């Protein structure tokens, strides 16, 4: 196969995988809005901690009145630059319409003053203790937010507080969710870095632990939600774009597990050193996500007397593999080393160097046993491999070897 | 800045029975992280990240039956020499300076030792990376430099392709440990194209070529696409193609559904063929792929309570090619397994109960554990506990089959506002090695709380 033919195959594989990309790019308008929320998730309790609102209010009724706008009651909403600012209407903003009579609190019920009584708005107000009302608690949202900046951009209140015109009391449910924020905060739109809105640690990562628990990406966000299975499935998201993870996690956190120096007990429970051989045989590729067999595994196997290159003193402790009659000699069964190698070659390299295999698998001309380790279809593509590197060929085949000449 | 000192001690028993390794390891890391701050959300952001690590192994390799200890670092005693073992290793897992958002957000630059995580897998190199953001739908990335390889100062070669054993052989007698090759530098070039369409589509096409004086060690292209179908279905597809091998070495296809009532249902199909350094003999050996199908469901049972269930089947496709000289094939052995986990996460404590079992022609591996963490004294003390059960049947070596129980107790206490100390004690009991204890202590110091 020529070089160009191989590249054509490579491009075909890529094209197949990217076919959906092209189709979607054509089908979708640019800067498409994110999909509607399907997860049923409301505003996060971590971002907007639980509120206590012992109040009665009808946003729907107020906003239906002529001339009443959001700013009529929330005048600071267009100038507030900090999320800590309280935008709750004060008594002064109610007073122009509601005849609140503070001079006579004993008669301040709606029975005597239908539009100015304290119990019109304050739940639980009692005439016998007229100066006491239940406290309103609205904890500061765990966000960065400037109402002023949004107002200056011409963003209407209802763009973020969508249902406010139809509800009674405004609660956490009328606060914007991230799904609505990203309709504007997206590539090419308003700033879309996570730290623009989310609180950060001193090193720039997002702050993820709050008084009410841990922050977790929403379920709709590209498979990033950290559910109970996520430690096992996170490869799918991380492989797409590692920078997604770096928003909350340091490179050190990835390296701590994936360079195999720290033992994670979820993956390696109990006395894993004693148990690990079965896992390695079942799924050696998964071991490779944290361990490089050719140095991490070999180094320990050498010391423990398992590897072929172990010191002769420690190897004298015993044979690791099954008896030669099953493991080495014909016939080839599922317990033969040839089958094991085809199925889980990485486990071979966790103990053996090339020299161990060359001893038998080199050609007779090279002093080996002449047992070919190549698959039946190998001759069709050996030329390309040889062009990439002739070193491995030369270990088993001498320069005049007919097969090597054929590949060349 | 953050410094972490970890000391641990444990024993390993060799497969022949004798406890040959009594390990005491001390690891020290020093990390630096810095980020620029600005009130302007469109201003460029400068980030610095670096970590230095020292791994010291004070263990010994002694056979308690004979009291004989190996002189494993003495190259003049080749019968005892363990070539890849080092008492002390210093490495730099990463160290880079990054500027993002240059030229009105169009250009990101990064220089230094850096990790690339993408469909081609983890890759660590020393060099530079530039990303050009071509509007909201595309970005182009290019990088180049030298792969971080074993045998070089401050490198451990963790992310190299498997296949070759390398070390700095300077000063070694040529006749000893001939299987260990001398270090070899490798240059790398890579490029990637990212495509996006709002939140509906995210795709990456990536290429990488690594070469040494002995030839091309890796040349691969990979493509991965994530697509949001409708309101609640996400699909992804991935393929990796090794160019000199003319072989697709990995494919993955997955679908994930997010029902309106919450939760996540997913199905994933994988085919993986192990890949080795192309300058090693392993790349040309007969290697068959492994297929895996995995289905999982994750359900929020209540606020802060998650349930996950998973089932999988793994097929070792030894029937992809028939030996030219044989009338029978080895078939395609199967393994199957399942797992369940329940996690509760509260502000002051969390707990996870997990169980998994996988079995088939290669043996059986089962595990169940309950782990708990709790913060006491207004966060001033964290307690950790883990109880785990294990069941292993090794079809190839029946004498290595075991049933075991493990117990872990740990505590973490803050020392002032910038430091914390963690200690844990692990006790494992099983039929193969009997009773083993591991003690771990971690001291962490930061310049900022």
What does it look like?
The complex is a heterodimer of chains A (408) and B (449). Chain A is mainly α and 408 residues long. In chain A, 36% of the residues lie in helices and 1% in strands. Among the domains of chain A are: 41-88 and 136-215, no CATH class; 360-408, no CATH class. The longest helix of chain A is centred in the first third of the chain and has 25 residues, at 3-27. The termini of chain A are close together. Mean pLDDT of chain A is 83; it is low at 20-40. In chain B, a hairpin with a 3-residue loop joins strand 12 (187-197) and strand 13 (201-212). Chain B contains one helix and 26 strands. Chain B has a 22-stranded antiparallel β-barrel. The interface between A and B is large, with 152 and 191 residues.
Low-confidence stretches of chain A: 20-40
Quickly give the structural class of chain B: mainly beta
What share of the residues of chain B does DSSP label as strand, in percent?
A: over 45%
Mean pLDDT score of chain B = 89
Helix content of chain B: under 10%
**Which structural category do the helix and sheet elements of chain A fall into?**
mainly alpha
Distance between the termini of chain B: 10 Å
Give a short synopsis of this structure.
The complex is a heterodimer of chains A (408) and B (449). With 408 residues, chain A is mostly helical. Chain A has helices at residues 3-27, 59-63, 70-73, 91-94, 147-152, 157-160, 178-181, 230-233, 235-240, 242-245, 251-258, 272-282, 284-287, 293-304, 312-315, 324-327, 337-343, 345-349, 354-361, 382-388, 391-396, 402-407, and strands spanning 209-210, 213-214.
């Amino acid at each position: 196969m020529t070089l160009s033919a191989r590249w054509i195959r490579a491009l075909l594989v890529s094209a197949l995988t990217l076919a959906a990309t092209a189709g979607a790019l054509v089908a979708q308008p640019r800067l498409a809005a994110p999909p509607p929320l399907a997860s049923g998730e409301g505003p996060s309790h971590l971002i907007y901690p639980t509120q206590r609102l012992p109040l009665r209010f009808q946003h729907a009724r107020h906003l239906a009145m002529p001339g009443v706008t959001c700013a009529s009651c929330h005048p600071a909403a267009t100038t507030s630059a900090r999320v800590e600012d309280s935008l709750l209407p004060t008594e002064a903003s109610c007073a122009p319409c509601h005849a609140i009579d503070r001079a006579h609190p004993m008669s301040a019920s709606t029975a005597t003053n239908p539009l100015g009584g304290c119990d019109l708005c304050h739940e639980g107000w009692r005439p016998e203790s007229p100066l006491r009302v239940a406290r309103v608690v609205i904890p500061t949202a765990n966000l960065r937010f400037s109402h002023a900046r949004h107002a200056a951009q011409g963003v209407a209140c209802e763009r973020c507080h969508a249902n406010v015109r139809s509800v009674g009391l405004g609660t956490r449910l009328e606060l914007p969710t991230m799904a609505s924020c990203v309709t504007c905060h997206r590539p090419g739109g308003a700033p879309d870095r996570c730290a623009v809105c989310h609180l950060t640690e001193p090193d720039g990562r997002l702050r993820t632990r709050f008084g009410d628990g841990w922050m977790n990406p929403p379920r709709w966000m590209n498979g990033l939600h950290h559910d109970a299975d996520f430690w096992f499935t996170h490869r799918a998201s991380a492989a797409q774009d590692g920078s997604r993870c770096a928003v909350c996690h340091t490179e050190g956190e990835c390296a701590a597990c994936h360079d195999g120096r720290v033992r994670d007990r979820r993956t390696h429970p109990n006395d894993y050193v004693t148990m690990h051989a079965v896992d390695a045989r079942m799924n050696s590729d998964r071991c490779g996500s944290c361990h490089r067999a050719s140095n991490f595994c070999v180094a320990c196997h050498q010391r423990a007397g398992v590897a072929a290159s172990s010191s002769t003193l420690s190897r004298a402790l015993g044979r690791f593999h099954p008896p030669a009659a099953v493991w080495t000699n014909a016939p080839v069964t599922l317990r033969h080393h040839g089958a094991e190698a085809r199925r889980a070659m990485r486990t071979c390299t966790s103990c053996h160097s090339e020299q161990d295999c060359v001893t038998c698998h080199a050609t007779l001309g090279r002093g080996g046993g002449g047992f070919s380790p190549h698959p039946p279809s190998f001759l069709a593509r050996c030329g390309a491999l040889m062009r990439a590197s002739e070193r491995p060929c030369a270990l088993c085949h001498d320069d005049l070897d007919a097969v090597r000449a054929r590949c060349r | 800045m953050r410094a972490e000192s970890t000391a641990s001690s444990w024993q390993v028993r060799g497969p022949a029975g004798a406890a040959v390794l009594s390990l005491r390891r001390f690891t020290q890391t020093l990390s630096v992280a810095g980020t620029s701050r600005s009130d302007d959300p469109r201003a460029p952001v400068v980030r610095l990240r670096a970590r230095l690590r020292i791994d010291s192994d004070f263990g010994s390799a002694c056979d308690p039956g004979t009291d004989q200890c190996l002189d494993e670092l003495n190259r003049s005693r080749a019968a005892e020499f363990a070539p890849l073992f080092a008492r002390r290793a210093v490495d730099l897992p990463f160290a880079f300076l990054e500027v993002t958002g240059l030229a009105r957000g169009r250009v990101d630059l990064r220089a230094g030792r850096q990790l690339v995580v993408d469909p081609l897998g983890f890759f660590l190199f020393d060099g530079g990376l530039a990303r050009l953001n071509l509007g909201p739908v595309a970005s182009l990335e290019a990088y180049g430099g030298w792969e971080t390889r074993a045998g070089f100062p401050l490198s451990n070669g963790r992310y190299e392709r498997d296949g070759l054993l390398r070390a700095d052989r300077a000063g070694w007698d040529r006749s000893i440990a001939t299987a260990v090759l001398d270090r070899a530098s490798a240059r790398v070039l890579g490029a990637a194209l990212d495509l996006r369409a709002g939140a509906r589509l995210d795709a990456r096409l990536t290429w990488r070529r690594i070469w040494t004086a002995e030839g091309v060690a890796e040349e691969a292209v990979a493509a991965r696409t994530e697509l949001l179908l409708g309101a609640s279905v996400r699909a992804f597809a991935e393929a990796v193609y090794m160019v000199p091998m003319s072989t697709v070495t990995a494919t993955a296809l997955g679908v994930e559904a997010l029902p309106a009532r919450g939760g996540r249902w997913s199905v994933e199909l994988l085919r993986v063929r192990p890949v080795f350094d192309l300058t090693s003999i392993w790349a040309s050996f007969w290697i068959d792929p492994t297929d895996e199908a995995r289905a999982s469901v994750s359900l929020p049972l209540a606020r802060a309570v998650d349930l996950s269930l998973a089932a999988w089947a793994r097929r070792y496709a030894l029937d992809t090619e028939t030996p030219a000289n044989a009338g029978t094939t080895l078939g395609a052995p199967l393994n199957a397994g399942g797992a369940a986990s329940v996690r509760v996460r509260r502000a002051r404590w969390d707990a996870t109960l997990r169980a998994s079992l996988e079995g088939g022609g290669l043996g059986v591996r089962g595990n169940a554990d309950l782990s708990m963490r709790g913060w006491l004294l207004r966060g001033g003390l964290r307690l950790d506990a883990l109880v785990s059960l294990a069941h292993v049947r090794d079809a190839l070596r029946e004498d290595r089959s075991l049933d075991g129980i493990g117990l872990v107790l740990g505590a973490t206490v803050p020392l002032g506002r910038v430091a914390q100390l963690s200690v844990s004690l692990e006790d494992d009991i099983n039929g193969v090695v009997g009773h083993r204890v591991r003690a771990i202590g971690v001291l962490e110091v930061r310049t900022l709380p």
